[in-house]
Design goal:
- By secondary structure, the chain is mainly alpha-helical.
- The chain is built from 5 helices and no strands.
- It has 2 domains: 62 residues; 43 residues, no CATH class.
- It is 69% helix and 0% strand.
- The protein is flat.
- The N and C termini lie far apart (42 Å).
């Protein structure tokens, strides 16, 4: 079984998400420092790999820069939350809102492609 860069990025995102949930729910069972490091490393690598795979021809049409920016802001918000910075919740919510908006609208997609991707057929 071979794994490509996109799949590796997705696996690291999932692992990072689980680490973030464990920290936010305070269910690290005494391994908070290890979970923090795992989150920082896997999340950072996943973001970088996500950006790298966006430049590959196979994924170029599906890449949404706005979603990537939202993910980066969420990552920064989680970092701020981990280290107890004030107002980190606002940054986290802002990143989530940008990512959610990007799921429904891609401002960088050409008009021709937008017409083909309608949610409802007429």
């Amino acid at each position: 079984m071979t794994i490509n860069v996109k799949q590796l990025s997705n696996l690291l995102f999932a692992f990072s998400f689980v680490c973030a949930l464990l920290m936010l729910l305070d269910k690290t069972y005494g391994y908070r420092a290890a979970v923090q490091i795992a989150f920082l490393v896997s999340g950072g690598i996943a973001l970088i790999l996500g950006l790298v795979t966006s430049r590959q021809e196979a994924y170029k049409d599906d890449f949404n820069v706005l979603f990537w920016i939202g993910s980066l802001i969420m990552y920064i918000g989680f970092l701020m939350k981990i280290y107890y910075y004030p107002n980190s919740s606002y940054i986290l919510i802002g990143g989530m809102a940008i990512s959610a908006f990007a799921n429904f609208y891609n401002p960088f997609q050409s008009g021709k492609d937008r017409e083909e991707d309608e949610l409802l057929d007429q």
